[in-house]
């Protein structure tokens, strides 16, 4: 269905563009993954770009929702819907949210560069570009006085985006997304007219540059494909064209040996390019390709970093000496760091010296020796069955992993998106997957991920666990050797038979089912509802445990967060021994899990 075009680049256009970009990347994700051969052939560029934009969309939608709460206006519908000016926030707020969301959610090399492209774009749009190219009123705007940018302002933004992205990469390489971004900016500079004309020129310039990437990068020429990150940027720019014209342009050629060569066909169903061995383009059988054709570092290290500019400058130098594919993006005290290294610990330590790293992700590029070639690695066969679980802390992530589960870490205030769950299902690499969301708020997110995974041929069963302790109970009875349906029934039954509770601290004054709480009060929640309000963690935990055991129980599971008092576990264990015969207690360390204490009673 044709998109109703936007006339100016305002907050509504930002929202529309983000939503359209997410949809387009969702359609192109498998195709982009399949042609990912540089800098590492790990088959995830499309997925990483999708997850990066999904985070940007969530941030933009949150700004619109917050504005609706303040003004009493309806928050709007799905991302990509055209919102009339006057309904939403300012342009600066919208592009700021887009850039911040992309920064904190950036995945992989291409996702990190895309985040910087969006940040560079946002810096110009938020500042209003040059006064002559932006407006706050227009006779045809029906009295609207919200800020917006026109064609010349968009040209400036695209140029700054390309330049800032190139500056963020330690050693820029031609034939990559940086080349495509520069070509888009060059074409936009030559365009006259409104945002639609500038966007159309940028897209056409990017598309032409994408077709020539195999000529600039030997790895692409040998594989017979165009650059995957560049393909993703062309997809995002196509969404920008659709935002301002109402119609999406034709998708880019999927692979080529040069401008005059026939386009090789990429099959989404099989994820490969005709004439190119699938072993060459999938991450599990990854062939690395550096400039010299030799293997490269074994690990990808990514983290967010709170640090001063001067500290980040020193960090760049240290990480550049440790590895390659270094990209550091961000600013104003918050940075996103991406690097490929052999010593992952040293890369993290460098971040600690610079500031406060968090949301640390370390990925091994392959099994066995990371420097063996793809020809020496046997293809990794799919497992018959796997469990994918969302866990709230590093400690529980380790516990679940020891039990054989593939984990997705959900830190406080940072719930995973559906794309992250789908990515975890792919990492599990199994024909059958049991999905444990471990949070009632993730029910719809997990359902969407399960549906997506099913379209990819994976048999997925979603068990609606509402707490990590229910997930522990389900995982305890998991038996991969029995029939899938029987295993799911047993795990569902174990989870359902486990009552759950948590002890946490109130962040603000609020009405609850147990009365009014003040900021700083200790809350005891049983099965999701506040049941106890107090001032002492141990006392509240003991009251919660007594209420749960009043209905009976055989096993108590305690998961302690980092900020829980050291004495609380010993006190509760002693209470169970003294007051409840034949009830066992197990204690786990959950790490930074948000709640002070999680409690399960089976």
UniProtKB/TrEMBL annotation:
Cross-referenced Pfam families: Dak2 (PF02734), FakA-like_C (PF13684), FakA-like_M (PF21645)
Family matches, as SUPFAM superfamilies: DhaL-like
Domain DhaL, residue spans: 12-242
InterPro entries reported in the protein's UniProt record: DegV_domain_contain, DhaL_dom, DhaL_dom_sf, FakA-like_C, FakA-like_M, YloV-like
Domain of life of the organism encoding this protein: Bacteria
Basic and acidic residues composition-biased segments: 133-150, 271-289
Coiled coil: none
Database matches in PROSITE patterns: DHAL
Stretch list, region Disordered: 131-152, 250-289
Record's compositionally biased regions (Low complexity): 253-264
NCBIfam families in the cross-refs: YloV
Protein name as it appears in the record: DAK2 domain-containing protein
Organism: Streptomyces rochei (Streptomyces parvullus)
């Amino acid at each position: 269905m044709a998109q109703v075009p936007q006339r100016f680049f305002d907050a509504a256009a930002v929202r529309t563009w983000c939503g359209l970009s997410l949809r387009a990347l969702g359609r192109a994700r498998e195709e982009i993954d399949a042609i990912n051969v540089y800098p590492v052939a790990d088959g995830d560029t499309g997925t990483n770009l999708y997850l990066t934009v999904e985070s940007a969309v969530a941030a933009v939608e949150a700004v619109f929702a917050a504005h609706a709460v303040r003004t009493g206006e309806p928050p709007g519908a799905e991302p990509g819907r055209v919102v009339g000016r006057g309904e939403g926030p300012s342009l600066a707020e919208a592009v700021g949210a887009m850039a911040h969301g992309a920064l904190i959610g950036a995945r992989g090399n291409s996702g990190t560069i895309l985040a910087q492209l969006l940040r560079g774009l946002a810096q110009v749009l938020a500042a209003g570009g040059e006064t002559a190219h932006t407006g706050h009123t227009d006779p045809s705007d029906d009295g609207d006085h919200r800020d917006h940018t026109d064609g010349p302002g968009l040209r400036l933004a695209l140029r700054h985006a390309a330049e800032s992205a190139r500056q963020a990469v330690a050693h820029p390489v031609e034939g990559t997304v940086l080349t495509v971004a520069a070509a888009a900016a060059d074409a936009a500079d030559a365009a006259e007219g409104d945002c639609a004309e500038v966007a159309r020129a940028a897209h056409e310039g990017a598309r032409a540059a994408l077709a020539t990437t195999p000529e600039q990068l030997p790895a692409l020429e040998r594989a017979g494909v165009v650059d995957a990150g560049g393909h993703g940027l062309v997809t995002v720019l196509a969404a920008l064209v659709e935002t301002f014209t109402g119609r999406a342009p034709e998708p880019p050629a999927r692979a080529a040996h040069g401008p005059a060569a026939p386009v090789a066909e990429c099959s989404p169903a099989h994820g490969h390019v005709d004439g190119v061995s699938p072993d060459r383009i999938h991450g599990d059988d990854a062939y690395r390709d550096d400039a010299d054709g030799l293997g490269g570092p074994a690990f990808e290290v990514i983290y967010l970093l709170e640090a001063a500019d001067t500290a980040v400058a020193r960090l760049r130098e240290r990480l550049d000496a440790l590895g390659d594919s270094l990209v550091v993006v961000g600013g104003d005290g918050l940075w996103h760091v991406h690097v490929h290294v052999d010593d992952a610990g040293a890369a993290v330590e460098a971040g600690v010296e610079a500031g406060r790293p968090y949301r640390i992700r370390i990925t091994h590029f392959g099994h066995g020796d990371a420097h063996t070639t793809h020809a020496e690695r046997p293809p990794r066969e799919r497992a018959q069955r796997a469990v994918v679980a969302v866990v709230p802390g590093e400690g529980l992530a380790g516990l679940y992993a020891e039990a054989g589960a593939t984990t997705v870490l959900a830190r406080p205030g940072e719930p995973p998106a559906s794309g992250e769950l789908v990515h975890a299902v792919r990492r599990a690499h199994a024909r059958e997957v049991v999905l444990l969301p471990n949070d009632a708020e993730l029910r719809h997110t997990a359902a969407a991920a399960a549906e997506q995974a099913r379209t990819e041929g994976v048999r997925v069963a979603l068990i609606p666990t509402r707490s990590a302790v229910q997930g522990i109970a389900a995982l305890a009875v998991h038996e991969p050797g029995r029939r899938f349906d029987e295993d799911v029934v047993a795990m569902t039954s174990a989870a359902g038979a486990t009552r759950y509770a948590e002890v946490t601290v109130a962040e603000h004054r609020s009405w609850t089912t147990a009365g009014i709480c003040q900021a700083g009060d200790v809350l005891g929640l049983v099965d999701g509802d506040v049941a106890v309000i107090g001032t002492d963690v141990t006392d509240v935990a003991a009251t919660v445990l007594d209420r749960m055991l009043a209905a009976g129980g055989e096993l108590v599971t305690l998961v302690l967060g980092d900020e829980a008092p050291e004495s609380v576990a010993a006190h509760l264990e002693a209470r169970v021994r003294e007051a409840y015969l034949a009830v066992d207690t197990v204690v786990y360390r959950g790490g930074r899990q948000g709640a002070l204490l999680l409690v399960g009673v089976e």
